[in-house]
Amino acid sequence: MNITVNVSSTPQELGSHAAAAIAKLLNDAIKAQGYARLVLSTGASQFETLDALVKEQVEWEKIEMFHLDEYVALPESHIASFRKYLKERFVSRVPLKAAYFVNGEGNVEKNIAELTTKLRENPIDVGVIGIGENGHIAFNDPPADFETNTAYKIVTLDERCRKQQVGEGWFENVGAVPKQAITMCVKQIMSCRHIITAAPHDVKAEAICNTITKPVDPTVPATILKTHPDWQLFIDDASASRLFAN
To answer: What gap in Å lies between CA 38 and CA 192, rounded to an integer?
Structure first.
């Protein structure tokens, strides 16, 4: 297990540290190969990291961005749309070379095929991968499929995942949360050269504790990250609280 754990006092401090680490890896990739490829996650846990990341000194015009997941049949105009989220919080704030989005509207299978082709043109240098309250990575809810070689697939969201979306304020109730989403698959995530996870707040404490203390198992999908050759985990006092209890 090659994991670096950084514990901060606040989500803001965590975001600054995670953003600095992401920026360094992107700059290293640009120095080595002239460009970098980045995967970004979304959700309330990423607010501070993205806000700090756009302020980092990076040659953004040499970076292609991809993202992890999106709801099926949810309009981009909806507050919960991850395309909307990334365009507002990241893409509109830095001059990227290109940005490629998961599109859950229209011909979804065609959208997935086109995105997969673009994604696999070259390796991803940095994956910024969150951890859900149920231990999911992207929308790979437990028990996650660790074996598929597909880049993206349509999945049915479990109840706890849908409740998380309500708790974060994206939907009024569980019934309003789409039942299906498109997610980047586990093997594709693990193929990133470097993975950075930013996971603040007490609602993530159980998932963080399970990820670190339990064996690698699909019932806690994030445990697979422990097998990655370069995984950096950024947590705050709240999300780390169960690790240091007693």
So the answer is: 9
Q: pLDDT averaged over the chain?
A: 96
State the pTM of this model.
0.96
Cα distances from 119 to residues 11, 88, 92, 189, in angstroms, run 30, 22, 21, 11
Domains contained in the chain, CATH given? 24-240 (3.40.50.1360)
As a dihedral over the C-alpha atoms of residue 243, residue 6, residue 186, residue 162, rounded to 10 degrees, the angle is 60
CA distance 206 to 194: 24
What CA–CA distance (Å, rounded) separates 226 from 243? 16
Q: What is the pLDDT of residues 162-174, one digit of tens each?
A: 999 999 999 999 9
Using a 10 angstrom Cβ sphere, with 0-12 exposed, 13-18 middle and 19 or more buried, the burial of residue 216 is: middle
Which amino acid is residue 55, in one-letter code? K
